[in-house]
Design brief:
single chain; mainly alpha; two-stranded antiparallel ribbon; 4 helices; elongated; disordered N terminus
Length: about 110
Protein backbone atom coordinates (compact mmCIF):
# COMPACT_ATOMS: atom_id res chain seq x y z
CA UNK A 1 0.00 0.00 0.00
CA UNK A 2 1.55 3.28 -1.04
CA UNK A 3 1.08 6.74 0.52
CA UNK A 4 -1.91 7.56 -1.69
CA UNK A 5 -3.88 4.58 -0.38
CA UNK A 6 -3.41 2.62 -3.58
CA UNK A 7 -2.17 -0.91 -3.87
CA UNK A 8 0.08 -1.81 -6.74
CA UNK A 9 0.64 -5.23 -8.23
CA UNK A 10 1.95 -6.21 -11.66
CA UNK A 11 1.84 -2.61 -12.79
CA UNK A 12 -1.84 -2.18 -11.86
CA UNK A 13 -3.18 0.33 -9.38
CA UNK A 14 -6.45 -0.04 -7.53
CA UNK A 15 -8.14 1.73 -4.65
CA UNK A 16 -7.58 0.21 -1.24
CA UNK A 17 -10.71 -1.19 0.38
CA UNK A 18 -11.49 -2.00 3.99
CA UNK A 19 -11.22 -5.72 3.28
CA UNK A 20 -7.58 -5.19 2.27
CA UNK A 21 -6.60 -4.37 5.86
CA UNK A 22 -6.70 -6.59 8.92
CA UNK A 23 -9.26 -5.42 11.54
CA UNK A 24 -6.60 -4.28 13.99
CA UNK A 25 -5.05 -2.04 11.33
CA UNK A 26 -8.47 -0.52 10.56
CA UNK A 27 -8.98 0.14 14.29
CA UNK A 28 -5.54 1.75 14.50
CA UNK A 29 -6.35 4.01 11.55
CA UNK A 30 -9.58 5.04 13.25
CA UNK A 31 -7.78 5.88 16.50
CA UNK A 32 -5.17 7.88 14.61
CA UNK A 33 -7.87 9.77 12.71
CA UNK A 34 -9.72 10.52 15.96
CA UNK A 35 -6.47 11.95 17.32
CA UNK A 36 -6.09 14.32 14.38
CA UNK A 37 -3.88 12.34 12.01
CA UNK A 38 -4.86 13.69 8.58
CA UNK A 39 -3.20 10.89 6.63
CA UNK A 40 -5.18 8.29 8.57
CA UNK A 41 -8.36 10.26 7.91
CA UNK A 42 -7.57 10.46 4.18
CA UNK A 43 -6.98 6.71 4.12
CA UNK A 44 -10.35 6.08 5.76
CA UNK A 45 -12.03 8.34 3.21
CA UNK A 46 -10.42 6.40 0.35
CA UNK A 47 -11.37 3.08 1.96
CA UNK A 48 -15.07 3.88 2.14
CA UNK A 49 -15.82 6.35 -0.67
CA UNK A 50 -16.75 3.70 -3.25
CA UNK A 51 -19.14 1.97 -0.83
CA UNK A 52 -20.70 5.30 0.09
CA UNK A 53 -21.20 6.09 -3.59
CA UNK A 54 -22.91 2.72 -4.06
CA UNK A 55 -25.32 3.54 -1.23
CA UNK A 56 -26.04 7.05 -2.45
CA UNK A 57 -26.35 5.84 -6.03
CA UNK A 58 -29.19 3.57 -4.98
CA UNK A 59 -31.08 6.64 -3.76
CA UNK A 60 -30.29 8.82 -6.77
CA UNK A 61 -30.38 6.51 -9.80
CA UNK A 62 -29.99 8.56 -12.92
CA UNK A 63 -28.53 11.53 -11.07
CA UNK A 64 -24.84 10.88 -10.34
CA UNK A 65 -24.29 14.52 -9.35
CA UNK A 66 -26.76 14.23 -6.46
CA UNK A 67 -25.22 10.89 -5.45
CA UNK A 68 -21.76 12.47 -5.40
CA UNK A 69 -23.04 15.47 -3.42
CA UNK A 70 -24.53 13.11 -0.82
CA UNK A 71 -21.19 11.28 -0.53
CA UNK A 72 -19.32 14.57 -0.14
CA UNK A 73 -21.74 15.72 2.58
CA UNK A 74 -21.44 12.34 4.30
CA UNK A 75 -17.64 12.55 4.35
CA UNK A 76 -17.76 16.09 5.69
CA UNK A 77 -20.04 14.95 8.53
CA UNK A 78 -17.80 11.97 9.23
CA UNK A 79 -14.72 14.19 9.41
CA UNK A 80 -16.48 16.69 11.66
CA UNK A 81 -17.83 14.02 14.03
CA UNK A 82 -15.21 11.25 14.00
CA UNK A 83 -14.02 12.15 17.50
CA UNK A 84 -17.53 11.48 18.81
CA UNK A 85 -17.55 7.93 17.42
CA UNK A 86 -17.68 5.73 20.53
CA UNK A 87 -17.55 2.26 19.02
CA UNK A 88 -21.02 1.18 20.21
CA UNK A 89 -21.60 -0.01 16.65
CA UNK A 90 -19.00 -0.76 14.02
CA UNK A 91 -17.43 2.23 12.33
CA UNK A 92 -18.75 0.94 9.01
CA UNK A 93 -22.34 0.86 10.29
CA UNK A 94 -21.93 4.31 11.85
CA UNK A 95 -20.64 5.77 8.59
CA UNK A 96 -23.24 4.02 6.41
CA UNK A 97 -26.02 5.32 8.69
CA UNK A 98 -24.72 8.85 8.21
CA UNK A 99 -24.77 8.24 4.45
CA UNK A 100 -28.33 6.88 4.38
CA UNK A 101 -29.59 9.78 6.49
CA UNK A 102 -27.76 12.26 4.28
CA UNK A 103 -29.34 10.72 1.18
CA UNK A 104 -32.80 11.06 2.72
CA UNK A 105 -32.11 14.68 3.67
CA UNK A 106 -30.78 15.44 0.20
CA UNK A 107 -33.80 13.77 -1.41
CA UNK A 108 -36.18 15.86 0.72
CA UNK A 109 -34.56 19.08 -0.46
CA UNK A 110 -34.56 18.28 -4.19
Amino acid sequence: INKSGMTESRGERRTMHRADLPPEMTEELLLQAQNGNKEALQTIVRMYQDSLYTISGSYFRGNPALAQDAVQDTLEKMIKNIRQFEGKASFRNWLFTICRRQCIDTYRHV
